[in-house]
Model the fold of this input.
Amino acid sequence: MSESFLHFLWRCKRFNSSSLQTTQGLPLDILNPGEWNRHSGPDFFNARIRMDGALWAGNVELHVQASEWDAHGHSSDPAYDNVLLHVVYEEDRPVISASGKRIPCLELKGKIPPGLIHRYKQLEQQRSGIPCSKFWRDVPEEIRRGWLTQILEERLEQKSGVVMRLLDDTRQHQDEAFYRLMARNFGLQVNTEPFDALARSVPVVVPARLRSSLLQLEALFFGQAGLLDRHFEEEYPRLLQREYALLRHKFALSPMKASQWKFMRMRPSGFPTRRIARFAALIQKNPFPLSSLMAAGSLAEMEELLSVELSEYWKTHYDFGKSTAASGKRHTGHAFIHTIILNTLVPFMYGLGKRKGDAGLIGKALDLLGDMPPEQNKITRFWQEMGENPANAAHTQALIHLRNHWCEARKCLECEIGGHCLAGAATVA
Ligand code: SF4
Done:
């Protein structure tokens, strides 16, 4: 028995509640278990119960053993003085409040359907896959869909939190905030922070002023990235060095440390050098792409707006001085463009919609996810093996979030799927 399971039992009233009595024999009726308090203080607020014929409204505290009340220091804490019911698995001893009153106690031992305990143990002890692996396929489609819709909303809320912070940092400058978020996502996890630092080091108006020359844009970004601060044999990087020296002086810039960039365990096509070159090409194509992306009428139009061709040097190099015939894609691939849309444009539209109270913009972000193809990665393949057949990116985004933030954290007792699995077991002997 764990306290989290006890919480679940109380919250969802999954125990035999007919003819309930406190341990002192007072008749008890649970009208409302109350609101779960995830912060300090009693576990549930505003519960409503009828005890010995009288109606009560107030707080409820839960413990596996009643003696944990003292062990957790509640006996001397005035925040627990007005607890009207102590719900325990076992009352190993009576509990007295700080003001000297015996706190009414409900003992759940013997009132939990054995099938429910058995199913809970199955969830808890499942080690391969996810805890509900054995039951997932039996959960009705409408329950899975409904839960995944909530999970998608949670994911978008979480991702748009970064957008809110960027808007605040830039004093609501949408283009600057979007430029920084896009730069972060060009880092693709491994180089997120250096890309973030790079974008912060040169406000979007600076590259916008240089958009007539891709050479100058590359000089600006590679120079600021600290990647030009070494000796080169080839003429092209030397040219970038000379350009950067002028730009550095003109805009009073100071470069980052090259050591911040990570190249290890990465395919050449993912090297930050190639990503910086692609970022420079995208800024040249459109330094303020937010408005045109939001106005685009289709996914294909967005793909066109985000697709760029690398400069001649980067068509045949993956790093300075390192050329290869097979140097990867010259044009931006669809998979990368979709990653940028998923991680930059969608959260940006969603966050902006939330901030402005613009339901149309929020709906547009959701529609865009519905139009995008499902993602293909380790997590989506796992769900496919579980029987899910994602139709679009809205579905895969929800599945990825569920796996990473719920299943991995084993939050099954708070999950609708877990609740359904246990509900099905409530009467199983
Ligand atoms: S969190 Fe939900 S979906 Fe994930 S394993 Fe637990 S019950 Fe299943």
About this structure: The first helix runs from residue 3 to 11. The chain has a mean pLDDT of 93.
